[in-house]
Amino acid sequence: MATVVIADDHQIVSEGIARLIEASHQVLAMAIDANELVQLVKQHQPDLIITDISMPGMQLNTTISLLKRTSPNSAIVCLSMHDEPEIVKAAYEFGANGYVLKHQAGFELATTIEKVLQGERYIPQDLKNIIEQKTDLSARQLDILKYLAQGMSAKQVASELNISSKTVEYHKYKMIEQLEIRSASELIAWAHSRNLV
Questions:
Q1: Which residue from 130, 116, 33 is spatially nearest to 87, judged by alpha carbons?
Q2: pTM score of the predicted model
Q3: Domain limits, the chain
Q4: Fewer CB within 10 Å: C terminus or N terminus of the chain?
Q5: Contact 81, 100 (CB under 8 A)
Q6: Where is the HTH luxR-type domain (predicted)?
Q7: Is 95 left (phi over 0), alpha (psi -120 to 50) or beta?
Q8: Predicted pLDDT of residue 62
Q9: What confidence tier does 89 reach under pLDDT thresholds 50, 70, 90?
Q10: Using DSSP, how many helices (H) and how many strands (E) does the chain show?
Q11: Can you list the pairs that 110-119 forms with residues at least 24 positions away whose Cβ atoms lie under 8 Å?
Q12: In the chain, % of residues over pLDDT 90
């Protein structure tokens, strides 16, 4: 029986997930925001973390990497209403082991949990089709955008990623062009709206 910590800013969702899995897993605690989640994971070191990706304080890159550092042996399943390719792909690139859409949790969550607890990285087939689509932005562009959205200058991003400032600027304007938006500030807003920061 695996130990589990669940996080969602809607308690009714967490309770619903707990009911779905409590026959075969032990739910240790439930969090309502990213800070509480990190504290509970540090305290309990669970086998599995099931977390919403849109709750207060949640930033895909920093939260998932922090959870990985806090409890290296915990598998992480992201539970989300977002099926946009760049978000699914980003969750994987930042270290999630599984990804399930909330409206599919009733019939997909059990399989996903079983697979990730066996050490696999798993998402349901229809989401796999999404992640395999050509996404709007490449992994390199997502990396650059993540740092730009944190307020770093092109020079700072270049130093962080060991590339030239020119390369950062090139990708920045390429992203603006690809996403058909008008400015760098709109690009940053786009990143925040998709919880990529």
A1: 130
A2: 0.69
A3: 2-132, 139-193
A4: N
A5: no
A6: 130-195
A7: left
A8: 85
A9: confident
A10: 10, 5
A11: 110/20, 110/21, 110/24, 112/77, 113/2, 113/21, 113/25, 113/48, 113/50, 113/77, 116/48, 116/75, 116/76, 116/77, 117/2, 117/47, 117/48, 117/75
A12: 53
- Position 76, amino acid: I
Q: Which fold has domain 139-193?
A: Arc Repressor Mutant, subunit A (1.10.10)
Closest among 51, 56, 39 to 97, alpha carbons compared: 51
How many Å apart are CA 113 and CA 99, to the nearest integer?
Answer: 10
Residue of 90, 7, 104, 103 lying closest to 48 (CA atoms): 7
On whether the CB atoms of residues 134 and 45 are closer than 8 A, the answer is no
- Which H or E run includes 31? strand 25-31
Question: What's domain 2-132's superfamily in CATH?
Answer: Response regulator (3.40.50.2300)
pLDDT per residue as tens digits for the range 4-57: 999 999 999 999 999 999 999 999 999 999 999 999 999 999 999 999 998 988
Q: Name the DSSP class of 100.
A: E
DSSP string, 140-160: HHHHHHHHHHTT--HHHHHHH
Residue range 100-142, pLDDT digits in tens: 998 888 889 999 999 999 999 998 887 777 666 555 677 788 8
Q: Classify the C-alpha dihedral 6-8-14-16 as positive or negative.
A: negative
Q: What's phi and psi for 75, nearest 5 deg?
A: -85, 145
